[in-house]
Amino acid sequence: MTERFDIDARLKTMPDQPGCYLMKNRRGRIIYIGKAKNLRKRVQNYFQPSGDPRPFVRWLPRVLGEIETIVTANEKEALILENNLVKKHKPRFNVQLKDDKNFLSLRINPDEKWPRVYFQRNNTDGEGRHFGPYHSAGAVRRTRRLLDKHFMLRTCPDHVMKNRSRPCLQYQIERCPAPCVFDVDRDEYMQDVEQAIMFLEGRGDELINQLRDDMQAASEELNFELAARYRDQIEAIEKVLEHQQAVGDHQIDQDAFGYHREGDRLTIQVVMIRDGRMTGARSFSYTDQEFPDAEVLSSFLNLYYNAGNHIPRQVLLPFELDEGEAESFEQLLGEIAGHRVYIKVPQRGAKKALVTTAQTNAEHSFQKEHAREERVLDLLEKLQRRLSLDNLPRRIECYDISNFQGRQIVGSRVVFTDAEPDKSEYRRYKMRLQKGQDDFGSFREMLMRRFRKIAEGDDDPPDLVVIDGGKGQLGQAGAVLEDLGLHDIDLIALAKSRTDKSGFDDYEVTHSAERVFVPGRKNPIVLKQNSAELYLLQRLRDAAHDFAIGYHKTLRRKQSLRSSLDEIPGVGPKTKRDLLRHFGSLKKIKAADIDELLQVDGIGPATAGAVFDFFHPPQQRCPESAPTG
Fold this sequence. Notes:
Layout: H1 7-12, E1 19-25, E2 30-36, H2 39-45, H3 55-63, E3 64-71, H4 75-89, E4 104-108, E5 117-120, E6 129-134, H5 137-151, H6 158-163, H7 169-172, H8 186-200, H9 204-220, H10 224-242, E7 245-246, E8 254-262, E9 265-274, E10 277-286, H11 293-306, E11 314-316, H12 325-337, E12 342-344, H13 349-387, E13 395-404, E14 407-417, E15 420-421, E16 427-430, H14 439-455, E17 464-468, H15 471-484, E18 490-495, E19 499-502, E20 508-511, E21 515-517, H16 532-565, H17 573-583, H18 586-591, H19 594-598, H20 605-615
Parallel strand pairs: 8-11, 11-12, 13-17, 17-18
Antiparallel strand pairs: 1-2, 1-3, 4-5, 4-6, 7-10, 8-9, 9-10, 13-14, 14-15, 14-16, 18-21, 19-20
């Protein structure tokens, strides 16, 4: 039996300087990363006889294999190091941003000749004015639709605008003046740009007054069509302002954080206030979080703002961080944002009310998430009982194979965590060994590549593996797990329903139930039709099938493009990319004449002629299709 980690001996050699500590289990995997002003004192707190009584902390001595430390010059450097290490190693017991993505923002660059609105996920990307962040993709798209409808800015990217010869649908429905084609007054266009910026900056009242003046002037000039447009703009802006709650008189950006915890489960809520108005909120829920509240919140703030999210002037917290951390955060965030940042724990007044609102929302989000978790847990327990599984199937992996007449054989892995797709864990496999149509061999190759990593300790195993197929595919998967010595993973195969014809002249068609094959059992298990358990397995199987088919189509499309364009004399990789970027598809390249081909950057008469002749051989042309130019 492996000896327990000697904590007392390790503490004697631990530095009393600032830095990060990495807790590893006995297999050498990092399970938690923390930072501290004094490394020895922080780690020692976990192992005091009268220390933290929570189950995880009591469990630490039994699972720990090592505690590594990295000393830094100061607390600010420890914050930076912790953020980098957590994002790199993704330890099990650290909080994580679920998809590691920051919120969507909008950008307008007034220095462009014809400015437009850009989507982006990082407030530091691109030149111009940045607006946001928006709490959801739906919110930013609604804002974008309102801008397109009422401010008439172009939507097409630069390369499309440059090569357009006639106006697009946006012009036809009066949502763009088509500066790509027509001689548009740039001063009038820039007036629309300025009004769009005012709207995005939250200066709605000022914009409405300006639009009312413009509407009155248009009416006096009997330009009723323009006056109606201003009227519609005013109504749309007023409707948006009705949904934005005013929470203060100060025109300042703030983030208020709420925190609700019950045992090892917690929810952190971010309420965003921009220019004195509450613009959105978002919650992050976690389980298996046993470390102190101040430590958890500090780690979350570090990840959240270093992911590129908007850093406001004020960050309002529900409780104090550990000693000295607030000052280090203010210094670090100020350097990133380029302005002074204040971290406060308000005790009264309007700021305290904002934190209270965030706390209330955090509790509501926690209860909602907890109720969902209970429903999911009930579903997974039913599936476990019905299929006699050894493990509760919280992480399920499903595998499928796709090929076309034995060519371009690909496989897919989709992952559901707690009955929901975890798309960051989806994987595609291109078969390296199987050259012919052999589903069994392809399954074996794919699964061997995946589960060898688990057997070598480089990845955590799933609770359940689902194979799209029948007994044959199940046998191959079982053989792989047996060869690798993985005996603790549940395995099943889901076979599609069969179509049976019976009765006079085969007029009656019936479909059998979908069947679940389990190792060691002769007859399949038939789950109740329309049950939640069967629906979960069907979602898995369909997701794996669609993912494999999508990859297969991508490879076939690339092969088709490669095989056609690579055969043209004088067309290299760069020219091929330029053609595809300009026309968008092989079909449009084939249909292009000489003049259209010459519009592509870097394409001269000789290359344009070679491309045209390849797709339109001279002997196959009729007189009317002779090239122009």
